[in-house]
Records
---
Amino acid sequence: MSTLSIADLHVSVETDQGTKQILRGVDLTIREGETHAVMGPNGSGKSTLAYTIAGHPKYHVESGSIRLDGEDVLAMSVDQRARAGLFLAMQYPVEIPGVTVSNFLRTAKTAIDGEAPAIRGWVKDVRESMNALRMDQGFAERNVNEGFSGGEKKRHEILQLELLKPRFAVLDETDSGLDVDALKIVSEGVNRAKANTGLGVLLITHYTRILRYITPDFVHVFVAGRVAEEGGPELADRLEDEGYDRYVGEAVAS
């Protein structure tokens, strides 16, 4: 069983005011087939955790480890992490002018697998995934994220997830900017990918609404760069009622 293990992770970032520590000792283990929801207020370090796992150069790991089946993820380049089976669905996907969705997807699949997918089977897989995500087939010939609506950008992220078949996916506020219909479609895509591949999911969100469609096995409350509390799905329901004020107050007091 594949495992993504984060141990005592401390991460900082350089700002105009100097070095700012963001993560202050994060411990988190995700196993194949598990869904972990990370919830917390703005500025608590949730996205920093996502981008650190993915290898964003802005974030400096001061200490701690990230291991994928025992392998040192921090020693890997960004492309090596992708080939090892890590995937990041970004909160704000970037535009890539001049690169069509179809070329982008096939190039990414080739880079990850080490060989180009057979055309006939690949075209069939892309078409089926796009249909499942309620995406018009003409979408494939548009430039990546250029002029896309928020919902189209998020569906494209999940299209990548379904076609690239990673072992672990970090979904950074995939629910932001989605209406109810788009949220259901995106959630169905995540659930489908998990059912088909045994995907492990780290789902970062502020709100519980996406958790109505993607049921977490574990919920982690993130405050001030640490995991303040852990529990099952019932913890998310409590957060919906009570908010984060108690955790924030405890963090300030400590």
---
Amino acid sequence: MRATSISLVLLAALAAGCAANQSGQPQVGDTRFVAGDGKMQVFDAADRKAAPPVEGPTLDGGTASLAAHKGKVVVINFWASWCGPCRAEAPVLKEVAAKTKGDVQFLGIDFKDRQADALAFERTEQTGYSHIFDQPGKVALSFQGTVPPAAIPSTLVIDKQGRIAARALGAVKYTDLMNTVTKVHDE
């Protein structure tokens, strides 16, 4: 009886981790969350899909949108204050944002969070860029059918043409992010 229960749990865990097909590309309509290793997956220019409209209220009471950065490379990071890997990667994002300021724009998407907790997180981290407060997760869902942010944290790099150029699932590494934004910017 116990072996059957353990087998069912393992089978469910394996099934939940299959959010991509065998080539590693996400399936259209796939919105499941998976564990990520933070490695940047860069898409060939010919295979890139247009990013959906992204806009919403910011944590500081303003509004932010992807359209406001038209013609620029934009890094979109999906995070939450309750997420340990999000806290771990925050200094990486802050440093890359500071080093690429003017060339690359950053936009945070605070996902499924309490606003007070998100504000406390931002006061502590002082990232230096805007964060859309997206408690219901509408921004993440808008990527369905393209390249969904299928983990928390997830980072998407949008090229100058408004297409999804790269994605990292899980906490992004400094070198991976810096190399990717530099490559996409220089295209």
---
Amino acid sequence: MPPPLSPAPPPSAQGSFGHALAGLLDVLLPADCAGCGSERTQLCPACRHVLATARPAPTPLPWAHAAAPYTGPVRQLLLAHKERGALRLAGPLGEALGRAVRSALGARAGAAPLLLVPMPSARSAVRARGHDPTLRLAGAAARSLRRAGLDVRAAPLLRHARPVVDQTGLNAAERRRNLHGALTVLPRARTGRAGLAGLAGRHPVLVDDLVTTGASLAEAARALADAGLPARAGATVAATVHPAH
């Protein structure tokens, strides 16, 4: 059993003008399905069914599970949520992430209170997008798991300790070198300040939208372990399917 989890920061309020405007436009303006392009619905019944019933995809890390392959409608839905501010997709994507959490934990899923720890987004990316998509998905997954009766919360514990280059086009070894030592646990999660009460004793589970080579999740697991907070598992909405699989 890991040592009790140090208190961590509550999920930050993601309010901003860009975030609020994106949400308002999402509700008021007609939108085509982000998965297949069907008219006047952001998530059509067919794509919702694909997301809800997708078979789990293999990942490069035995302790990390993905709810679906990163192909077809699932890929398009993740891109729409992350890059185009399709905020209403967080609910169904979060449900898929919650399934991956339960799959990764197996029989341990309800054995102890859980803390979903999202992979950190760069501040520049959050400003450009107007929201933090991974933190939003972690919150949606936690709500989905609570509806299923599990004791789950989500909170950011990690931050970037140094800049990294864009990982697009890098192979697995290059990604590992790029990310080595790039993440650290937030200082306030280590010191246990009074304002962070309520998260102690929860077992961390790393979550992200996508796993490609596993380098990001592995670096996050290292950072948590170095702080005495070993992750119980990792979970993502989707995984890039490599030819070997």
